[in-house]
Amino acid sequence: MKPPQALLLDAMGTLIGLRRSVGHSYAELAADFGLTLEPAAIDRVFPRIYRQAPPLAFPGLEGKQLRQAELNWWGARIGACLAATGQIKADELPAGLVEKLFERFADAALWQVFPEVPACLERWRSRSLKLAVVSNFDSRLPALLADLGLAEALDALVISSQVGAAKPDPVPFQRALEILGLEAHQVWHVGDSPEDELGAQAAGIRCLMVRRP
Hints:
By secondary structure, this protein is α/β, with parallel strands linked by helices. It has nine helices and seven strands. Strand 6 (187-191), helix 9 (194-202) and strand 7 form a beta-alpha-beta unit.
């Protein structure tokens, strides 16, 4: 097998992760709005709500329209999550809570770069590999990666909400190939989810899976 000329990298769960659970952050901010929420109850339902969500992708939108679509998408997830805990009805979210949570998760202080990532990126760059992030995320990601010190190592960043398709759709991978000027057989993808594996396969790209505890 020939070594790759580039690596396509997933972001969440592969390069970076939250320092604390979603439930803790939701409950902490909700307290400012007079709500008392149980973090563990949120953490129990959040993975299911997230998996069942429609793709975080909005073809043809940009600027303020794109941000509003992203905000609406997360608002639906937040409402469904809190409603599923039985602590609040989805249509009773306090005004401003969704936007504050959206802004809060753009704060690099909530996130950590996994310990081995900087050395891996440096080693890959020293071998002249092109690096691109392909992520099912939204327009907060570029600034977040910059604040975490990872953006300078990247040659490209493809985000599902902006490209109009989300993994396991092959379109985000194909867009990354276009930007890098490479063919599918010339790159590998590194990810941690079934969407990574299935999307890479659909695009004809070899996928290596990260298995974290």
